[in-house]
From TrEMBL:
Primary residence: membrane
Domain Cytochrome C biogenesis protein transmembrane positions: 224-434
Organism in which the protein naturally occurs: Flavobacterium ginsengisoli
Protein's recorded name: Thioredoxin family protein
Gene3D superfamilies hit by this protein: Glutaredoxin
Cell compartment(s), UniProt: Membrane
Length: 693
């Protein structure tokens, strides 16, 4: 203390020394807080729209960061949550909040398509004010923003409603100052498969109001088109469509006065088919809206209803019954087709769509819902791909009628195609049931059960293709074709590929379909033998509060429990600040912790304490508190987030720290470490453990 007083006395005599000291303190303070990141800066305002008001939120996102949309599906990173704090008795929401330009990319770790903002985030919510004395609209945003690490942030808005803001008066725009951001740590890996990024277009708030598109990912649209094209080709090979090719082409070539006119009519016929299905996609998009369909894709009832619909479609394809549109529709279309000319050709195409509905309807329905759940123009793109595959043969065979002789004859193989499609529809149905189960967290359809169902479905399909099972509309046969044999062998290989999934194999080929590995009866695989796990016997006799984590490493999830055990056995502590939805955390566990040089260290030389900052379990009332900054600590995740920020001055995950039994950092060169390669991680581990000893 005397030394400090003397130093202060001497400094007071020297203005230059005081100035230098001021700068030293400034930069030291800046450095100590530099890791508390806030990559999104927000503004908000309120505008009048008719008799309602529109809340507008604009976020500027730092370069290379991106923020997740409210339409990001469950099972991946945390979606944007918007909470209207003082809604009751003051105002009503008009529809769901609309979003500006977003992008969608596939995350191969979570197996979902993530939707996110880049550069700018624009969100609008229309409200109907019911309380004329309303002073402010209070809104909370809970959102996730990511780069190499991710942050879960909370932004509080208090948007002032001016006293002059009346329903029937002129529009008023008021800028609202948002409260200070409370940054709550949550790290999610955002390493994704890169996609083509569409050029970013700057928009004014007015322009953004006019154009609020849903996610329209470039690669996803191409994938939708490609899958739809293959589906159209499959529909072409069904008993309802295939026999129509030679009949229709012959009609155009024989009824036309010249070959050129026959070709022209066939081409018009083909484009009419495309127009009919594209218009159908346009109607679906227009009626439901891109945002609504995207939101529906994660809705429990939507998934349950579509599960039932797909079961009905599959049962129809397998031969139990046929789904047909009313005969009167086809008759009316035929009557219009008899008139000839362009209108007649268009109605011929419409007649084809109606007559073939029993085969094409289930495929079209599935495609529309799958495409519509992606939002934007996806349903139109899907119908374009489907109808193009359906229409091309009619046009090509009209141009080259000699090719008709090379077509295989109609027969039992057409029903085989239909049955195969039925099995595929049946398998896909359980994806929708799985979605509902995941959202409700019922654990009825966990990963093992889902995989077992698929093994049964594709195993039965294999038996069918090998002729061991026959269905109602199959033709008698004494042998199977070579093509059917090859398809049966392919299905058999796929069925065998699925089987190790019961024991924890990742099944990367179908990672987007089954529930994630953690949504499982046995996260380590059946019998505890999957993916680096250990047997259940190894889990016996663990100290209180411990369990077996990744690769059989003993892990604590409460700091006090882990600290008590570390003191008991006198070993250093490795703190692992992580998240349930943290992809980089999972990649570190899967790719770095599993290294032969690292795994024994984590098992034997440290006490691992994994603290989940996104743990939403509520703390007991007596353990809840308010920080000096005014932040309320309510959940377990809040507690560990506050611990991480107050102790280590950062809000990102994964974060690793090696400490002694008093909480002192053991690493000097890098006190903490995040997402790194195995070599760097190993050196960091060795340094921390050596300093403890």
């Amino acid at each position: 203390m005397n030394f400090t007083r003397n130093l202060q006395t001497n400094l007071s005599k020297n203005i230059w020394t005081k100035t230098i000291l001021l700068f030293v303190f400034f930069f030291a303070f800046a450095k100590g807080n530099a890791q508390i990141l806030e990559p999104v800066k927000w503004t908000s305002k309120i505008e009048k729209k008719g008799n309602n008001a529109v809340l507008i939120f604009d976020g500027t996102i730092e370069k290379d960061w991106h923020m997740y949309s409210q339409f990001t599906p469950d099972g991946g990173p945390l979606a944007l949550e918007i909470t209207f704090k003082n809604q009751k008795g003051n105002y009503e929401l008009v529809g769901k909040a609309k979003e500006g330009k977003t992008r969608t990319a596939y995350n191969d770790v979570f197996g979902v398509d993530e939707t996110f903002f880049e550069g700018k985030a624009h969100i609008e919510q229309e409200i109907k004010i019911t309380n004329p004395n309303l002073k402010t609209v209070d809104v909370d945003f809970d959102f996730q923003v990511c780069k190499e690490v991710c942050i879960n942030s909370n932004k509080k808005f208090s948007i002032a409603v001016p006293s002059t803001f009346k329903i029937d008066e002129i529009p008023v725009v008021t800028e609202a100052k948002a409260d200070e951001t409370k940054v709550v740590g949550l790290a999610i890996d955002t390493v994704k498969k890169e996609e083509t990024v569409q050029p970013k277009v700057e928009k004014t708030a007015e322009a953004a109001e006019e154009e609020i598109p849903a996610p329209a990912p470039a690669r996803s649209l191409f994938s939708i088109f490609f899958i739809a094209f293959l589906s159209g080709f499959a529909a072409l090979l069904t008993p309802c469509v295939f026999p129509m090719i030679p009949m229709t082409v012959s009609f155009f070539t024989k009824q036309s006065k010249s070959r050129a006119k026959g070709i022209r009519n066939a081409i018009i016929y083909g484009f009419s088919i495309i127009a009919i299905y594209v218009i159908l996609g346009l109607i679906v998009t227009k009626i439901f809206g891109a945002d609504a369909l995207n939101a529906l894709s994660t809705d429990v009832w939507f998934n349950l209803i579509f599960f039932v619909i797909l079961i009905i479609f599959a049962t129809s394809f397998l031969g139990a019954f046929e789904i047909m549109l009313p005969n009167s529709w086809a008759n009316k279309a035929d009557q219009q087709a008899d008139k000839g000319g362009l209108i007649g050709i268009l109605f011929m195409a419409l007649a084809l769509a109606i007559v073939s509905f029993s085969c094409t309807g289930p495929i079209v329905g599935t495609l529309l819902v799958e495409a519509a759940s992606n939002g934007g123009i996806a349903p139109i793109v899907g119908m374009l791909g489907f109808s193009l595959a359906l229409a091309l043969p009619f046009m090509l065979f009209a141009m080259f009628p000699g090719w008709l002789n090379s077509l295989p004859k109609s027969g039992g193989w057409l029903n085989t195609v239909k049955v195969v499609l039925g099995f595929l529809e049946l398998a896909l149905a359980f994806k929708f049931l799985s979605n509902a189960d995941l959202v409700l967290q019922l654990h009825f359809l966990e990963r093992e059960v889902f995989i077992a169902i698929w093994i049964a479905i594709f195993g039965a399909l294999t038996l069918y293709l090998f002729g061991k099972i026959t269905l109602p509309h199959d033709s008698p046969t004494h042998h199977i074709s070579v093509g059917r044999l090859y398809l049966g062998l392919l299905t058999l290989v796929f069925t065998m590929y699925l089987i190790p999934g019961l024991w924890g194999a990742p099944l990367k080929l179908i990672s987007a379909f089954p529930p994630p590995p953690q949504y499982s009866e046995s996260p380590f695989g059946v019998g505890g033998s999957g993916n680096g796990a250990v047997s259940s016997e190894a889990g016996k006799g663990l100290p209180e509060g411990a369990e077996l984590g990744p690769h059989g490493i003993m892990v604590f999830h409460d700091y006090e429990d882990g600290l008590a055990y570390a003191k008991q056995i006198n070993k250093p502590i490795m703190l692992d600040f992580t998240g349930y939805a943290c992809v980089n955390c999972r990649k570190m566990e899967n790719n770095v912790w599993s290294e032969p040089a690292i795994l024994p260290i984590l098992k034997n030389d440290v006490v691992l304490i994994s603290l989940y900052v996104d743990d939403k379990r509520e703390l007991p009332k007596e353990e809840q508190f308010t920080t000096a900054a005014g932040d309320k600590i309510i959940t377990v995740g809040d507690k560990w987030t506050d611990f991480m920020i107050s102790k280590y001055k950062t809000n990102t995950q994964p974060l690793y720290v090696i400490t002694d039994l008093e909480g002192k950092n053991m690493n000097t060169s890098k006190p903490t470490i995040s997402y790194v390669n195995a070599d760097e991680y190993l050196e960091w581990l060795k340094e921390g453990i050596a300093n403890f000893k």
